Amino acid sequence: MRKLLTAPVKMPLTDSENQNYQTILKHAQELSLNLMAIKVENRPEDFLSWCEEFYRLCSQELNLELLEPTQFTPLKKMQDTLTNAISAAQIKMLRVAPWPVFVSYIKDKADLHALDERLKLVAHCKALQTQSLSEMIDEDLTALIGKHTAKHDTSIYDFDCEWFGSAKTSKVFIQLWQAQPSQFETAINCIPLEGEVSHADYTNFVSAYQAIFAENDLGAAPLIPATRLLAMRRPDQFVALTNAKIDLFSQGLSVAKFNNKDFDGYWRDLILTIRSFAWYKQALPADEFEQSIADAKAILIDVFLFADEQTAKNSNYLKLKNKPSKSSTTSGKRSRRSRESVQVLVDKALAADDMPQYLLDKRDSIVAEVQNGKSIDQVISLLRSIFG
């Protein structure tokens, strides 16, 4: 273990990597006796592999029963630093990866990052571009900004709406989003649906977006919700951010760190940097899968962030799908959707090619049951068992 801990000293670390390494060492000192009891067989020679191996040892080989209560805090801090270091090192790969390597990496990490769900979310939001925001049901409006709720019926929303990031913590943004959809639509429409988005397109969007907050005397407009809107509009051109991702992308790409108000920094330091990379410029899809990656190549740099076996399992879609039916009530009351939303969702479900006529004839009955709180899957499954 001592040789493993000191191995990075001989590695060519960047300033941010060395800072992460020193932080890891600091917390490791408080766990030294416990760490020395771990049998080490693998001693990687590069920093990314070192972080991955050390994280594995601390997560799987460390005897937690022997830890003192006060040692769990430094352990958690050390693991958090390791995951951040892994993310930054993996993002660093984006600077040199050609298109085949970019695609191969995403394919290898598909299960850990719930790639299937992510691509379904992207496809769903792309399909919404034929509607105006004022015409959308609440479920689609919240899906666009990354807010997953119990109203997102799993038969339609077979993905977590919060992949890539969420605007749900930005209360002021959400209030405006719900109250003034037409103004946000004006801003979003500044971004073309095809071709490369120009700086002029982006600045027009930013001006319209910032004006919504200024006109309501709500101070400076937040960048993070705007990146979610941009990335859902053009996932091949924009990256959806969170506060944590700003720091990790800045480290991994070696660009200046910007903040949640810096729209110029987002464009200059992140978007233009990504556009300079080989995988971005030389994307040559060879099949349908690669085309789906190319259509979302910017937003999918999220797949280069750290993920473990729990990441995909924490999907809000899976939590809702696997939730016991008796738990779908709160204080004895079912969550009721608007009739308009229910009708739209039921019609989407009934549009499936394999839907039998007897279910189509029961459309109004299905709407009524779903409006009372049952899921579409529950109602259709029940009717299939009775009439099928």
TrEMBL record:
This is Orphan protein. Residues 317-339 are annotated as: Disordered. Residues 317-332 have a biased composition (Low complexity). It comes from the Bacteria. The lineage of its organism: Bacteria, Pseudomonadati, Pseudomonadota, Gammaproteobacteria, Alteromonadales. It comes from Catenovulum adriaticum.
